[in-house]
Each structure stands twice: as C-alpha cells, then as structure tokens.
Input
Amino acid sequence: MTPTPHSGSQGQGRGGKGRSGKPGAPKKDGPRGAQSQRGAQSSRGAQSTRGSQSPQGAKRAPKTAAFGRERFGQSLGPVKKNPPSRSQPVRDVHDPEGIRLQKLMAQAGVASRRVCEEMILEGRVEVDGQIITELGLRVDPKAAVVSVDGIRLQLKENMIYLVFNKPKGVVSTMDDPEGRRSISDFLKNKYSQERLFHVGRLDQATEGLLLLTNDGELANRLTHPSYEVPKTYLVQTKGPMEAGVGKQLKQGVELEDGVSKVDSFKLVDSTPGHVLIEVVLHSGKNRIVRRMFDAVGYPVERLVRLQVGPIRLGDQKQGSIRVLGQQEVGHLLASVGL
Output
C-alpha cells in the first residue's frame, strides 16, 4: 500500500513535538512506531523496486505501420526478399542536390514526416540496398531505389498501376474494331490518353481482376512463365462433383499443348445442381482454366479471377477501376524481383 502524506507521522503532534513534549522525541509506544516505520520503508522499497522493474518489464510500443492511411493492402504482410550479400560494397547514396529522405517518404504516402524520421532511425529504410539509420540524407527521386520495411516505393510520378474488375462481355483490348465493349470504355478521362498495358488477358466471358499499367517491365515479368505468378479463380460448374476430380487436376491433365495442373483446388460452396470451386495456378496459357475443366468433364458455367500475385479483387464493384496503393505496388514489384 502506498503511504499517505501522513503515514509514519503518528508519533508526532503539532509543531513536531513527540508525546513526551520534547521536540523530535521518539514515541513511547515504540513497537507501533517501529512497525509504522518499517511499513513505510517497506512500501517505499516496494515502490522503488516496482519503479526500477517497470522499464525492463514494460512492453515496447508497436512499430508504426507504413502506409497506414491506405485502404487496400493492409493484410499483405511483410515482403519476402533475399538477404543482402555481405560482399556488397558500401556506396555513398547521398545526393547534395536531392530532397531529404523523410520528406520523400512522406510525399509517397508512407506516413507523416515525423514518423518517417522515426522509421529511418529504427533502421527500417533502405536506399539502393543500404540500410539508413541517420537523418539528413538527401536522395534523387528519379534515380534512387527506396524501400520501407522491404516495400519498394514507386517514386516515378508518371507510373500508373490500376485494377479493373472486368464484367462479362468486355474484351481484353484497349479498342475493338468490331465495336464490342473494351477496356477503354471504362477508363476515365484522366487515363484515356495514357498508353496502358493490360497484364495478361481474360476472355470475353470471363470476369474479374485485370491489371492495367504503363510499366512495361513489370507487365512483361508478370506475364513471363519463368516468374510463375499465381492467379486465383472462382469456378462455377455443374454439381455434384465426383470425388477425385480435384486430385486429377492437381496431378495434371493432358491438353492439346501439353500437361497442365492447378496448384490448389478447394470446394467453396455447393447448391442443387452447381458447385463453386477455387483454383490457384501459375500458368498463363490461353483459356487454361476452361480447357482443364472441360478435360475432366465439368465445363465452366461462370469464371471469375479473384487475385493476381499479391493483388486481390476484394469487394471492388464490377466495371470499376481503382488505383493501386504504394503498399500494393511494392508487393507486386517484389513478387517479380523488382
């Protein structure tokens, strides 16, 4: 119990006199006074002990999350990356004509400038592969590669990264000579004059996620077979489905252009006459999901792409286009080694 302002002073009266009438004289009831004194000392000792233990036992405050203001990408987790080589030489990344690192980070939407300074001091920021732990560094945003918690910042203001939730009946081209609805019909005036690439294709009857960008290197890597970028699809087909179909698809089925297989197969839902299946595969062959399900005797009734690499469709409205956040762009770049 923490002593009150009067604890330990029961043996003194007004004016500092003890019960004997002499200033400072000890109380006659010594045991009680000693007990009170010991209690006060014990309380003070306990309080002192607790005070000395609290800094060690106290939990450290959690780190401030980067890109905390972004709606999308919060559940992507840390970026997986290879550890830096020990033989990598230390280079001078300071550019006297550049802008301060914390200001650049704040402009990129990482956090406030003050929080960005804390991130630098905590060793969470890299410039050109080198960890920065001191303030005052200036960098050239057009040349420097800046990463926060392993997430690379896209500092080129002219780079565009979009997610399009393609409806059924839309062709995966920017313009269609036959007059069918195409991607350009959904682009706002802001992007209508941009030269955008659609990353991969969805056939006219397939719905879902389609990435649009003017980053040619990223688009090339996302579609190149060597990077094996996974894609997740939701398949509706006839039901009930016989046992063993999932195992057959995971082991591989023979198609006209070779053997193809899914990475994962999961039954999501079942209604009278229909089943919903979620499959993940990294193949980018033309109409690969439809051809695989045809091969096992379950033609696709409806097909929706839900995810490409780390980018998810989520609850995005069909026919809408949204801009990827810095966190999503960073994960997307990291997934193909950029």
In short: The radius of gyration is 33 Å. Residues 30-57 form the longest helix (28 residues). The CA atoms of residues 184 and 192 lie 7 Å apart. The domain at 230-308 is CATH 3.30.2350.10 (Pseudouridine synthase).
